[in-house]
Structure formats: C-alpha cells, structure tokens
Specification:
Shape: globular
Number of helices: 13
Strand content: 5-15%
Distance between the termini: 22 Å
C-alpha cells in the first residue's frame, strides 16, 4: 500500500530519556492531521496509516483528528473552514484529553503539517514532543497544479479564486488554501492580508511566545517528496521557497531571512540538531510501508 513520510534513524536511548510515556505500555501518544481532500478515517489513507502504526507499536494511543461532526464535514472543512478556527478547535480538544497530559508526538500530512506546527506554536499544553511533517508546506504554496483524490472540480474552482483574489477578505476567510497562499510577486499583500501563514511564520511581528514554544520540540522532522506534483514549490516542504520579487529561483531555509534573523527559532533548533530533513522518491504522500517503518517509526517509539 502506497503511503506518506521520511527521517534519520534515531537512538532509542536518547528519545526515551526525554519523552512522556503511557505508564501502562511505555508508548507516547500520537496525534495525526490529514491533508487536503482527505479525512481522518479513510481506510485507504489516514485510516490505514493509523492502523499500521497501532500494529507496529502495540498499545500506542493514536488520535486521527476529525474537523467536524462526520467524515463529510471533515473533508469539506479541509477546503472551507478558517484555519485559525480549526487550530483553536484542535487545541481545545487536545487540552481536554487526559491521555495527552504527559505530552504527545504529532504527525501531519500535507497541509495538516503546517496546521500542527501552529498548534505547537500557539498551544504548548499539553506539550508536543516530536513534530513530523509529511509533505507539509511550511512556506506556503504559489500554485495548485494538482489535487489528490476525487476533488478535481474543487481544485479548478480554488485555483481560479487563488489566482485572482487570494488576499481578498472573503477568500482569505473562507478558503483554506488561500490562508497559506504565498505570492512572491506581491510580498506586501501577503504579509498584510494572509490570515494564517504570515502569522505563524512571523512575517509581520516576532511573537516571542511562538518562537519559544516551537523550540520546545525535541525534533522537527520534515519530509520532502522529490517528484511531488501537488506542492509548488516543493522546496516549501523543507521550509524553503521562491525568492521574493520573482517566481523562478528558490532559496533554502538556511538562505532565508526567517532563518538568518532567526525570527522563529529555526536557526537555533538547527544548530541544536532538532531539525531533520528527509527526502524520498515519489509523488506527493507516496511511500512504501518499508520506508515508513525505517524512517518515521523511530520518532514515534
């Protein structure tokens, strides 16, 4: 079964020293957040990932987040529900869950990855320990070349809206993908009107609380898919992006102002060995069980 994720193998002794565990079975709880066009419980995607992890790590407590009252709402909200409202909803849900009091690991797929990063930055209790971003777009996107799943009609509609009015109040408030749309040709508009991405990436002001909270992670693992046909530019999966003022040349995280000024604490995390950059062959969120087991499960044990 094709799946999503990448990572450097990690010493279990080092992890065990700093991770909260389920006293009954020695495992760390895990929170999953799905991507665009998917839902919490699809047996062919995130539902299958959840079962795989539960099989490979017996006794682990896994939550696959449902944003809404049912799977249909969950899928629709991935397109149309204000991201900041989604993050607040998840923060409340996690804070009320006694199973997570000692902390948890988080794994986000595609847009679910940057949403979970917002949880880490805004809601430090309960504490997130490791954040695994599988194809997440941490500097946003400047294009929507292809949508996963059976949502091509939505993609066509969304693409037209993004290309013409991404930063209008109406589109920003009601279209999820607009909230991480990052136009390098209109940098001032992006910084002023982006309701979500510009905030969590410290584009307007430096929120020291965001910076402090993100640095509390033990590991921030970012997986890039080298043949990705969904994320544009794919460099965003490693926190890189297009250089401002043009739409062809890219820069790495380490070359960016965000890193050089350490506005989010990523430079300090990098120097401390907390950032992990993984790459895998394949299209968006396509990976084998063997790759997943070898590269990502060590961060969850």
């Amino acid at each position: 079964m094709a799946m999503v994720l990448p990572l450097f193998l990690l010493s279990q002794v080092v992890l065990a020293a700093s991770m909260p565990v389920n006293e009954a079975n020695g495992t760390v709880p895990l929170v999953l957040w799905h991507g665009m066009g998917d839902s919490c419980c699809n047996p062919l995607s995130l539902g299958g990932i959840k079962k795989l992890i539960e099989r490979e790590i017996p006794g682990i407590y896994v939550i696959s987040l449902m944003i809404g009252k049912n799977v249909v709402e969950d899928t629709e909200n991935g397109f149309f529900m204000d991201v900041n409202e989604q993050v607040s909803m998840v923060c409340s849900q996690l804070a009320k869950n006694p199973q997570l009091e000692g902390g948890y690991n988080a794994m986000g797929f595609s847009q679910g990855a940057q949403f979970l990063r917002a949880v880490a930055q805004r809601c430090p209790s309960p504490p997130m320990k490791n954040l695994i971003s599988v194809g997440g777009q941490h500097q946003g996107v400047y294009g929507l070349p292809r949508c996963p799943g059976e949502t091509s009609f939505l993609c066509d509609m969304i693409r037209k809206a993004l290309n013409s009015e991404a930063y209008s109040d109406l589109i920003q408030k009601h279209l999820v993908q607009a909230q991480y749309w990052h136009d390098p040709l209109n940098d001032d508009l992006y910084k002023k009107h982006s309701l979500f991405l510009a905030d969590i990436n410290q584009e307007r002001v430096v929120n020291e609380t965001y910076k402090k909270n993100l640095q509390m992670l033990n590991k921030f693992v970012m997986v890039k898919f080298l043949q990705d046909s969904v994320v544009d530019p794919v460099d965003s999966e490693w926190f890189g992006f297009l250089k401002t003022g043009q739409a062809k040349e890219t820069e790495t995280l380490q070359e960016s102002v965000l890193y050089k000024e350490d506005r989010l604490g990523l430079a300090a995390m990098d120097k401390a060995g907390k950032l992990v950059f993984l790459a895998t062959e394949g299209d968006h969120l396509q990976f084998t069980k063997e790759w997943f087991d070898a590269n990502l499960l060590p961060y969850l044990r």
